[in-house]
Design brief:
210 residues; alpha/beta; Rossmann fold; 5 strands
């Protein structure tokens, strides 16, 4: 299934997996795919147009992932809703596996990269943190952007999304049996990167950069 070196990173919202994935991709000189953007694009488009998520996912293009609105909380909630639809997941699976199968290898992050998309990836990480720590990070991020919200609301929304992602029948959020668990509750981005890098290098990976 996979050809080049693949690093699969999974975990719940707010754990820091996206930041970590981007840093690792840069460090190792590998292309990066935030698989959640695919579902955000489908979910947001479905809500805006009233179209069928299954049909939208079948016609998704790489250019659809460039919309800045995909990084909003609304897009994240929309993604979690369409991600439970089996046909949506099936339509997007081929896109993700083709990306992972590049000769260069790749870094993918999401919720089922190590369990469904790249089960044979040589390096798998499950990045997590307490829901309280993740909600606090998200609250600070939203406030920094000028969004008027309160901590209890952010915490409730994150807990609901965790429940939906973990209980869905199609590829639920869970760690692969051979994934390295990285709890970032008490870590900043630098500490998380250092811990992940140490694990990955023990697996034989080395940077292709200077």
């Amino acid at each position: 299934m996979t050809k080049g070196p693949v690093i699969a990173i999974d975990g719940p919202a707010g754990a820091g997996k996206g930041t970590l994935a981007r840093r690792l991709a840069t460090h190792f000189g590998l292309p990066h795919l935030d698989t959640g953007l695919l579902y955000r694009a489908v979910g947001l488009k479905a809500e805006k147009t009233g179209g069928s998520p299954a049909e939208i996912s079948a016609g998704l293009e790489p250019s659809d992932l460039a919309d800045p609105e995909l990084r909003t909380d609304e897009a994240g909630q929309a993604a979690s809703k369409v991600a439970v639809i089996q046909q949506v997941r099936a339509n997007l699976l081929d896109f993700q596996r083709k990306f992972a199968a590049q000769a260069t290898g790749a870094v993918l992050d999401g919720r089922d990269t190590g369990t469904v998309i790249c089960p044979d990836a040589p390096v798998k990480l499950f990045v997590t943190a307490s829901v309280e720590a993740r909600a606090e990070r998200r609250y600070r991020e939203l406030r920094a952007k000028g969004v008027d919200t309160i901590k209890p609301r952010v915490l409730a929304e994150m807990a609901e999304r965790d429940r939906r992602d973990s209980e869905r029948a199609a590829a639920p959020l869970k760690a692969a049996p051979d994934a390295y668990h990285l709890d970032t509750s008490d870590m900043d981005a630098d500490a998380a990167f250092a811990a992940a890098l140490a694990f990955i290098e023990r697996k034989g990976f080395r940077s292709t950069g200077p």
